[in-house]
Amino acid sequence: MARFFLEQEYLRSESVRITGEDAHHISRVLRLKIGDEIECAPGTGEIHVVRLTRVEGDLVEGIIVDSYLSSEESPIITRLYQGLAKGDKMDFTIQKAVELGISEIVPYTSRYTVVKLNQAQQKRRLQRWERIAREAAKQSKRARLPIVQPLVEFSGLLERLEIHRAAGELILIPYEHEKQVRLQDIECSQPKAVSVLIGPEGGFHPTEVAEVVERGAHVITLGPRILRTETAGLVALSLVGYRWGDLA
Amino acid sequence: MARFFLEQEYLRSESVRITGEDAHHISRVLRLKIGDEIECAPGTGEIHVVRLTRVEGDLVEGIIVDSYLSSEESPIITRLYQGLAKGDKMDFTIQKAVELGISEIVPYTSRYTVVKLNQAQQKRRLQRWERIAREAAKQSKRARLPIVQPLVEFSGLLERLEIHRAAGELILIPYEHEKQVRLQDIECSQPKAVSVLIGPEGGFHPTEVAEVVERGAHVITLGPRILRTETAGLVALSLVGYRWGDLA
Q1: Is A246 close to B223, i.e. CB distance below 8 A?
Q2: Residue B146, Cα to own-chain centre: how many angstroms?
Q3: Handedness of CA B31, B34, B36, B40 (dihedral sign)
Q4: Domain at A43, CATH number
Q5: pLDDT by 10-residue block (mean), chain B, 248 residues
Q6: pTM of the predicted model, to two decimals?
Q7: Which chain B residue has the Cα nearest residue A97?
């Protein structure tokens, strides 16, 4: 059954009203008819099964016939801080992170960031990333819509880490010069949230690693081979999901 | 230091002779000079540090100044059986699997395979995949060159699984309809080899899963969210590397 993320305002007590792109998708692309059912997610973790009562080009209405709490969301909050990367690598990283159950993605710039984006480019890029996150969330049957934050500078990242540390959250930074400490060496039985910091293509400057460690981050290795930036995030999130989440 | 994979015949007892593309790369792209050093891997796991003694357009020679056994290779053999997927998904899967330390990649067709390739296309595609594997192995500093096998049919895959089972190897098949058994439920302290079977975009037919299970495969879940075919392989290999390999 196709799943759609709805703004809360489209959901009334027992009925649903869908307009715009999603309505177009239902009526023209999926060619659903009155009586067909879809799943609607307000993004809260709840899923409503909706039977369609009206299907026109840009207007779809239905009634809620069933509601349940989704089991597709990870028991832990995960955040990916991803150094801004070139070309379609960010698109890829966002799509895969959403499939893996990410809660929040925060792109950032740092000393070795190669890509430069002006304000207008940043805005367009964010819209693109949000669209990719939404599509991936639909396809992978997420119940919550992950948040993609606007691009922050490294100083802004450090401020966020302060907040995470104060909240007792776990912060991990895979670093190619770390050869000893592995994820399984981190002593933490069940964190409520895990933030993973992945460097840009140029990697981290040692000072940046030190600044992050000062905010309580744990430096780890992801093995002896050199991973590309878009691979590193995905591997780290897989391992976090295996150890503490719902991946295995 | 840049790393190159060499055919064994280019390596003499104390000297190295490189021609063709690699020589071009060394002389024209990296613009290395006499006295500069490179790493040469005959693909056996050994690494030779080579000091260049002659650098011309298509001919590079050098002497071996150091040799050591690489620590960049996983302690376990891993094989990825990947259902033939559309467009650049195969390229992506091969690149990432090599970064993760894969030993062998076997593309296969099955009942729900969407892509059809004739003999000529298969040949061209294999050459492309081998090039991608080689590049990824260089970039991620692998010491062994992973093997990409020619496309096999599902019956050929089953024959290979028989051999793996006879050799006491572990076979895993992530399947979206499996909800219970996770990787951590598989009882196996240290397998010498792990094969991971990933379905094509269309997924596995239940009969195919049964046939694979008859050959000793363990059906597992990779969590409650639906993963794309190119994500599933990467996640499964990450988890295998975490539990038994050198990823963490």
Answers
A1: yes
A2: 4
A3: positive
A4: 2.40.240.20
A5: 80 84 92 95 88 93 92 92 94 97 97 94 97 94 94 98 96 96 94 97 96 98 95 97 91
A6: 0.87
A7: B231
